Amino acid sequence: DMKVTQMPRYLIKRMGENVLLECGQDxxxxxxxxxxxxxxxxxxxxxxxxxxxxxxxGDIPKGYRVSRKKREHFSLILDSAKTNQTSVYFxxxxxxxxxxSDYTFGSGTRLLVI
Amino acid sequence: KTQVEQSPQSLVVxxxxxxxxxxxxxxxPDNHLRWxxxxxxxxxxxxxxxxxxxxxxxxxxxxxxxxxxxxxSTLHITATLLDDTATYICVVGDRGSALGRLHFGAGTQLxxxx
Lengths: 114, 114
Hints:
The structure holds two protein chains of two kinds.
Chain A: E1 4-7, E2 10-13, E3 19-25, E4 31-37, E5 44-51, E6 54-57, E7 65-70, E8 73-78, E9 87-94, E10 104-105, E11 109-113
Parallel strand pairs in A: 2-11
Antiparallel strand pairs in A: 1-3, 3-8, 4-5, 4-9, 5-6, 7-8, 9-10, 9-11
Chain B: E1 4-7, E2 10-14, E3 19-25, E4 32-38, E5 44-50, E6 56-59, E7 62-67, E8 72-77, E9 86-93, E10 102-104, E11 108-113
Parallel strand pairs in B: 2-11
Antiparallel strand pairs in B: 1-3, 3-8, 4-5, 4-9, 6-7, 7-8, 9-10, 9-11
């Protein structure tokens, strides 16, 4: 069953702590994404990765960084978390040639920064 | 500025009734439009994708239309079930490749009551 797996599902961190969100996919998709979802807003793109070590900023990259050392794994890192980074974070993947607009989303990580 | 607007923001229907969800967008170019279902606390699951001018799709009790001239899409759900309770998200992609960006609506929250 093709899927995107996110870990952990839930996370509580204190302000100033470092946060690591992990995402894996088993479809050999070249492209992976990190989004955040806040109430009343559509998903917002944080970072996009086109392949290993080929990452680009999305629309709201400030306060985040990413790491992609293997095609199947994409990490989102918050150095010194802030309370306004409390959100639900979604990872997604797609093939490079996406003429079928095929996107697969993970189940999300709910992060609470206190 | 929000480029994908969904209406209504929320909707309550009785089980067995039909409902229609609307999506208006200003994304240019508009390569494709996809409707997702998001159960509470879960990820996005694709319902259907529309690509061409005046496309119509059908997936069981879900059917959708796209009018690219008007930049408008509708999602029809017939004979609603309690399990249809979810948020329905309209997403417009501006390209058919990984270089494209997805533009998300904030979603319509549908509640189906007995």
